[in-house]
Amino acid sequence: MVRSKQHEGRAEKRRILYLASEMMPLVKTGGLADVAGALPKALKELKHDVCALLPKYEAIERGKWRTRVVFKSFPVRLGNTVYKVGIERCYAITGIELYLLDYPAFYHRPHLYGYHDDALRFALLCRTALELSKAICFQPDVIHCNDWQTGLVPAYLNTTNLHDGFFLRTATVFTIHNLGYQGNFTPALLSDVGLPWETFSIEGVEFYGHFSFMKAGLYYSDMLTTVSPRYAQEIQTKEFGEGFHGLLSTRSNELVGILNGVDYDFWNPKTDKMIPVNYDASTVDMKRKNKAHLQEQLGLPVDEQKPVIGIVSRLAWQKGFDLLIEAADELLSKHDLQLVILGAGEERYESAFIDLAKAYPTKVGARIGVYDEPLAHLIYAGSDMFLMPSRYEPCGLGQMISLRYGTLPIVHYTGGLIDTVKEVDEETGNGFGFHKFEAREMLSAIEKALSIYNNKPQLWRKAMLNAMGCDYSWKHSASEYERIYEMAIQRRINKLGVE
Ligand code: ADP
Ligand code: GLC
Fold first, then answer.
1. 441-494 pLDDT tens trace
2. pLDDT tens digit string along 52-104?
3. Is CATH 3.30.70.270 the right assignment for the domain spanning 281-471?
4. Contact criterion met (CB below 8 Å) for 18 and 40
5. Quick one: CA torsion of 27, 28, 34, 39, rounded to 10 degrees?
6. Architecture of 5-261+475-496 per CATH?
7. 147 CA to middle of ligand 2, Å?
8. Where are the chain's structural domains?
9. Which ranges of 252-405 does DSSP label H, i.e. alpha helix?
10. Atom 19 in ligand 1: which residue has the minimum CA distance?
11. How far is the CA of 362 from the centre of ligand 2 (A)?
12. Which residues contact ligand 1 via a Cβ below 6 A?
């Protein structure tokens, strides 16, 4: 099928195959899903053709989205095994040609990740993406891969499919959302996923004796991006590079940090249907009505004046809540405030926060171990401050969402948090932060925020308006990706000598 390439006087219209392992509004465990749900839409608005493929997980609500079976039994070969998968077209995101990969034995499970056969589960996603492109005649100019789950696509295109005429002009872009999750497996699996043994080398998928999906993406892609300019610099250092800093420094000319955007269709206090009282910068006083609903919902005393610090997060080591656990008694016994926590993840954090809520029933409201989209919206809208003491943070969406809702972030200055939060001073700024990853430092930042909230209401209001006025929409970032796609295409052309 020939699809037209030209569009009015600007960058060429491209065919983009977008691959990620989670995608809003269908399925989400973190910010990757927000990005994967929003960037394809923004690219579509720039007039590109976007196609996407997502596993049909158990968590995708059956019957909620309009779907149509395209292939009942579509053969996909991985090594010596042929998997017969189902392919469905799903109409959940307007304008995006989205397909679901149906293979219940792999994806019909309570969680998205963390299984013994994850290598095969995500190799199947990668391989199917290539086979499906052919079957539906969607010849991509670019395959945009995200995180380790999609890392084998660039490896296939540069090894098993190097001379495959269909993909001769297909470039790959690999976006790092989090270098901490690498998809490292035993090299014995190489043949099972259909990669030649020669790829198990430093110049290939080998990573400290493992077969690494992340390494595959980082090594074979034409261009690399990550989700903030600061993280792009950080990951070239030993401290943040998670073992990949050598490779990333060598590829620094092909590595670009592009700040994530926020989908303001979905995250907008003026139109948000999940919050009780809508508001914008001109009606910002209405915001505190949401606080009363939040307090009520979490069983806290209702008091619209009381400063409320919100948290919505995966409860993982990365997120730095050890600092809060260490400082909690001092913070809660010394200060008149409320803390609301929505999060799920590691046992040790979950139980620490449950215990904290028991110890301070009038000060701490916790909803732990659940993923709750409406409550997340209410926390962004109803809190005064939003805490993210992350050890590292590639971009972070929580702080950008809270800014939009006039809820001032308090952050550890790292990664994307540096790129988006500016310290409140007498005139400017939209939040608060601390540099050294220490409980004492975090406490000081919170105390500064509380002191301005309590004693300088005019300054607080100004900072809220600054926050709400920040523009972290996808518009700018999507055109940055356009530029990267062109660079990737050029690199592929140079590499293979095709025109
Ligand atoms: P990460 O992707 O590292 O988890 P981000 O800040 O980029 O961090 O994105 C987190 C996203 O997940 C935000 O949209 C946040 O609101 C959402 N989120 C995290 N935990 C929960 C939860 N328990 N319930 C609802 N939303 C959550
Ligand atoms: C990852 C990162 C987070 C980022 C998100 C979306 O989960 O931890 O910082 O915002 O991906 O790119």
1. 999 999 999 999 999 999 999 999 999 999 999 989 999 999 999 999 999 999
2. 999 999 999 999 999 999 999 999 999 999 999 999 999 999 899 999 999 99
3. no
4. yes
5. -40
6. 3-Layer(aba) Sandwich (3.40)
7. 10
8. 5-261+475-496, 281-471
9. 287-297, 321-334, 347-359, 373-382, 398-404
10. 313
11. 32
12. 30-32, 34, 312-314, 342-344, 371-373, 376, 395-398
